[in-house]
Design goal:
Number of helices of chain B: 0
Structural class of chain B: mainly beta
Radius of gyration of chain B: 13 Å
Largest sheet of chain A: 7 strands, mixed
Helix content of chain A: under 10%
Number of helices of chain A: 0
Mean pLDDT of chain B: 94
Structural class of chain A: mainly beta
Oligomer: heterodimer
Largest sheet of chain B: 6 strands, mixed
Distance between the termini of chain B: 41 Å
Strand content of chain B: over 45%
Radius of gyration of chain A: 13 Å
Helix content of chain B: under 10%
Strand content of chain A: over 45%
Distance between the termini of chain A: 36 Å
Low-confidence stretches of chain B: none
C-alpha cells in the first residue's frame, strides 16, 4: 500500500530533550516536506527537500533540523524542544515535477513539550 | 510571500444542499492548487489538484475551479451528505516549490 508513515504518533517530552520524528514513504517520491498545524494558523511548512541531500527552509524553520540521506526517509529533529513547538506535525511527499503532482500526507504526530 | 485565505471559516448546511467553498491567494505565480479534506484528529486526504494552466477539475460530486489571474479557487460540492462533514483546506504550490495553506473551512452537513 502506497503510504507516508510517521513515528511516533504521539509524544510528550520536556524542554531541552532532543527528539526525532521519523518520516518514511514507499512511493519513490523525490519531494518531501514537514508541516506544523496550529489552531488559527493552519498548516505551515517547516522544511522541504527536492531530492536526496537537498533541503530548503520553509516558512517556520527556526528550532528544527532535517536531513535527507535516503530518498524514502526525511526525519525531523528538534535539538532543544521548547513549549512553543507543541503542535501537530505532518510529513508529506510528492513527485518533484511541479505542475501535475499531488502531495500525500502522513497521519500526523502530536507533540507536547512541557 | 504568498497568503492563502479561505472563506467562510465555518459552514453548516442541510443534507442535499449544493455548496461552494472559497479560496483566495495573493500571488498568481503558482504551479498548482490542491484541495484537501481533513477529518478531526486525522491526516489530510487529497481531493483535487488543478494545474496552473487548467480552469477546473472534477471528481464525482466535487468540482474545483481556478482563476489564477484573480487569485481565486472554488470547491463546489453537489448534493451534500453528512459524510462530507470535515475541514476543507486549499494549498498552493508556488514557483519556489513551497506550499502555502489556507486555514480551512469547517463544514457540517446536517442530516
Amino acid at each position: 500500500e502506497a503510504q507516508v508513515t510517521q513515528n511516533p504518533r504521539y509524544l510528550i517530552t520536556v524542554t531541552g530533550k532532543k527528539l526525532t520524528v521519523t518520516c518514511s514513504q514507499n512511493m519513490n517520491h523525490e519531494y518531501m516536506s514537514w508541516y506544523r498545524q496550529d489552531p488559527g494558523l493552519g498548516l505551515r511548512q517547516i522544511y522541504y527537500s527536492m531530492n536526496v541531500e537537498v533541503t530548503d527552509k520553509g516558512d517556520v524553520p527556526e528550532g528544527y533540523k532535517v536531513s535527507r540521506k535516503e530518498k524514502r526517509n526525511f526525519p525531523l529533529i528538534l535539538e532543544s524542544p521548547s513549549p512553543n513547538q507543541t503542535s501537530l506535525y505532518f510529513c508529506a511527499s510528492g513527485q518533484r515535477e511541479t505542475t501535475y503532482n499531488e502531495q500525500f500526507f502522513g497521519p500526523g504526530t502530536r507533540l507536547t513539550v512541557l | 510571500k504568498q497568503e492563502v485565505t479561505q472563506i467562510p471559516a465555518a459552514l453548516s448546511v442541510p443534507e442535499g444542499e449544493n455548496l461552494v467553498l472559497n479560496c483566495s491567494f495573493t500571488d498568481s505565480a503558482i504551479y498548482n492548487l490542491q484541495w484537501f479534506r481533513q477529518d478531526p484528529g486525522k491526516g489530510l486526504t487529497s481531493l483535487l489538484l488543478i494545474q496552473s494552466s487548467q480552469r477546473e477539475q472534477t471528481s464525482g460530486r466535487l468540482n474545483a475551479s481556478l482563476d489564477k489571474s484573480s487569485g481565486r479557487s472554488t470547491l463546489y460540492i453537489a448534493a451534500s451528505q453528512p459524510g462530507d462533514s470535515a475541514t476543507y483546506l486549499c494549498a498552493v504550490r508556488d514557483t519556489g516549490n513551497q506550499f502555502y495553506f489556507g486555514t480551512g473551512t469547517s463544514l457540517t452537513v446536517i442530516p
